[in-house]
Amino acid sequence: DYLSPSRRKTKAVRNIGGENFPVVIAFRTEGCKETNPSFPPDYIYAGRALPEIPESGVEYILDADVWKGEANTWPAFNHEQLFTVSSYQTELKFLFTSYPALTDEILACLKTHSEMVVISQSHHPNRLGEHRALVHQLMSKKLQNPVVFFQHYAENQAEDLQIKAAADMGALLIDGFCDGIFLYKHGTLNPDVTDATAFGILQAGCGRMVFKQTGFLPLL
Question: Which Gene Ontology BP terms does the record give (predicted)?
Fold first, then answer.
């Protein structure tokens, strides 16, 4: 209901979904794993390998086929790996998928595995519409898996990134669909800027505070 929006009902998986504030997932390449302590992400997607010296207190997401069950790490699957999901004994799993890829097989997997968090991706010109369609499909099937929205950018100026990301994510926050933000940029901006942008969007959209501070972040 766009006139009286309320948050989509989801089942909490650790600190994602339910009554929890939306989380921030950060992306770090092999050569840049550090994070700014002023904007600590809830999770870092590290892809194919953990950093040689993982940061203390940081939780990492790894591709499922290289995940070995290390402490403070969680597996991420794609649609080609669904047949292996049941063999991973862990309280939190992630699934990268998109609305066009949301097959009956994936929907059945999500129904069976309530511990799975969806990371919604889109390459459609109308990404907002496609992200919304994915959530509406989950709701129509009465699935309560949390949804994190993956957004990708190529901006090289902080202001450009902030404006575009806020426009993309603001509507999803107002809809009540957002259990987390995962911003990824191809440009030359420092990853800390991307993390700070994600926190700024959440603070503006739902009141999430960094370290419970009450001041506004000078981002948006």
Answer: isopentenyl diphosphate biosynthetic process, methylerythritol 4-phosphate pathway; terpenoid biosynthetic process
Ranges assigned E (strand) in 51-91: 60-63, 73-77
**pTM for the predicted model, two decimal places:** 0.90
Residues 97-141 have pLDDT tens digits of: 999 999 999 999 999 999 999 999 999 999 999 999 999 999 999
Read off φ and ψ for residue 13, nearest 5 degrees.
Answer: -120, 105
Residue 190 corresponds to which tokens in the numbers above? Answer: 């420092």
Is there a contact between 217 and 196 (Cβ–Cβ < 8 Å)?
yes
Q: Say if CB 109 and CB 116 are below 8 A apart.
A: yes
Closest CA to 202 of 220, 184, 186: 220
Cβ contacts of 140 within 8 Å, gap of 6 or more: none
Instruction: Give me the residue spans of the domains in the chain.
Output: 23-212
Q: Could you tell me where the DSSP H helices lie in 72-179?
A: 104-112, 127-140, 158-175
Q: Answer yes or no: are the C-beta atoms of 119 and 76 closer than 8 Å.
A: yes
The answer as to CATH 3.20.20 being correct for domain 23-212 is: yes
Give the C-alpha separation, 157 to 159, whole Å: 6
